[in-house]
Amino acid sequence: AGVGALITAAVIAVALHSVGARTVFPMALLISGSATLLMPHMAPSGLLAILPMRLMQGSAVAAVMPMIGYISSHWAPLSEMGNFVTMLTAGIQISQIITMPLSGELCVSAGWKWSYYVHGTASLCIASAFWLVFRDSPEQHRHVSPKELALITKNGPASRKTGSKRPPVPYRAIFADPAVWAIWVAFFGNSFGYQMILQFMPTFLNKVLAIPIERTGFFAILPPIAQLGLKVVGGITNDKLTCITERSKLRLFNTLAMVGCGFFLLPLGFLTPGGASWLPIAFFTVSVASMGLITCGSIKSVTLISRQYSHFVMAIVQFVVCIGYLLVPLFVSTIAPTNSIQEWRLVFAGVCIVLLSTNAVFCYWCQAEPAEWTKPIAREDESIRVLVTPADESTPIA
Q1: Does residue 231 contact residue 306 with C-beta atoms inside 8 Å?
Q2: Percentage of residues in the chain with pLDDT exceeding 90?
Q3: How many CB atoms within 10 Å of residue 286?
Q4: pLDDT level of residue 163 (50, 70, 90 thresholds)
Q5: How far is residue 155 CA from its own chain's centroid?
Q6: pTM of the entire structure?
Q7: Per-residue pLDDT, 133
Q8: Farthest-apart Cα atoms in the chain, separation
Q9: pLDDT at 118 exceeding the cut of 90
Q10: What pLDDT score does 66 carry?
Q11: Rg (Cα) of the chain, in Å, rounded?
Q12: Which spans are transmembrane here (predicted)?
């Protein structure tokens, strides 16, 4: 799925800009859900039959980050951006809280195939519901009142307000902006730390600290619950915090997220195998929960600076996240081949260094104001005043 997301991330971004989220996201879910339903029938045929299904499942994964950027830039009032992005991304934790115990129960009670059937059917139902309810802009939704529309579009990009033809994405300007690169670097560190915990927490607890495997499965659900709670509190606090600048808030919340994650990972390398099981669980839980504040840091920064082009910036974020997803197993297997506590001490130290260094890059170059390439430029052309974007002045890089 990670490779599939890596391959289709750019396609999703182009499709979102061309036809909108109401069409693209349900299509991605339909492809992923269909592949999930077919998986039990393909499994007996071996790896070559399963591989295309996994690649198809990656299409939905590839849509996650671009959709966050697209929806927040089109639907979120600037005064409520922190809380909006927090609620929008809460689905990531809610899905983990639901799917992990549900999959276990289905495997035990009905067989592993039913886990795929239930989740595949759920994907198709969600795709249908999304298409029926969602609209690409608040102007198109009949349940948005004039007062709500004025609040949503206040200080928003001109293209969102007017509903005019979408200008081409200013690829050259985006890739030349240090603030955008700061976001991408921050997300690499974020994905590196988060994926290490997500993929290897049960392995570390069982293989290194000798905690029984049946207990590690239960403990795996605690971090997303804690992360969801802290994320909601952080989003509300972020919007109500008016005593510091928006850029300072980005730095503060991103630092709390990434430094907090690294700080609580380090003690895990010094625990004694066979000791109290609650202590490593506590460190893992607080570490993952800290990452929930990233929504008020680098994720929020995407919408603030890239506005109507947030979906493209987030598509590259998805690409970076997938790279981290693929690199983490290689990193862990190289540093900790025998799963000794000494080896894992180096793993946690390495992850902490990545988190701290990437956060430093973000804090130095991050911005909170709309980039110049998002703003329309007034120009006189044969006595007719028109609006163009910086993207119109140069040929986009394909």
Answers
A1: no
A2: 38
A3: 18
A4: very low
A5: 25
A6: 0.81
A7: 93
A8: 80
A9: yes
A10: 86
A11: 22
A12: 45-71, 114-134, 174-197, 217-238, 250-271, 277-299, 311-332, 344-365
Q: Do the Cβ atoms of 302 and 310 come closer than 8 Å?
A: yes
- Contact present, 24 and 12 (Cβ < 8 Å): yes
Q: Cβ(69)–Cβ(303) under 8 Å?
A: yes
Write out pLDDT tens, residues 13-31: 888 888 888 999 999 899 9
Residue type, 84: F
Torsion angles phi and psi, residue 195, rounded to 5: -70, -35
Strand partners, 30: none
Cβ–Cβ under 8 Å, residues 124 and 33: yes
> What's the full length of the chain, in residues?
398
Query: What class does CATH assign to 2-155+170-374?
Result: mainly alpha
Per-residue pLDDT tens for 66-93? 888 888 888 888 777 778 888 888 888 8
* Helices 2-19 and 21-42, axial angle in degrees (round to 10): 150
Q: What is the pLDDT of residue 390?
A: 44
Amino acid symbol at 154? K
Q: Please, are residues 32 and 59 in contact by the beta-carbon 8 Å criterion?
A: yes
In three-state form (DSSP H/G/I as H, E/B as E, the rest C), the secondary structure along the chain is: CHHHHHHHHHHHHHHHHHHCHHHHHHHHHHHHHHHHHHHHHHHHHCHHHHHHHHHHHHHHHHHHHHHHHHHHHHHCCHHHHHHHHHHHHHHHHHHHHHHHHHHHHHHHHCCHHHHHHHHHHHHHHHHHHHHHHCCCCHHHCCCCCHHHHHHHHCCCCHHHHHCCCCCCCCHHHHHCCHHHHHHHHHHHHHHHHHHHHHHHHHHHHHHHCCCCHHHHHHHCCHHHHHHHHHHHHHHHHHHHCCCCCHHHHHHHHHHHHHHHHHHHHHHHHHCCCCCCCHHHHHHHHHHHHHHHHHHHCHHHHHHHHHHHHHHHHHHHHHHHHHHHHHHHHHHHHHHCCCCCHHHHHHHHHHHHHHHHHHHHHHHHHCCCCCCHHHCCEEEEECCEEEEECHHHHCCCCC
Distance in angstroms (rounded) separating the CA atoms of residues 276 and 270 = 13
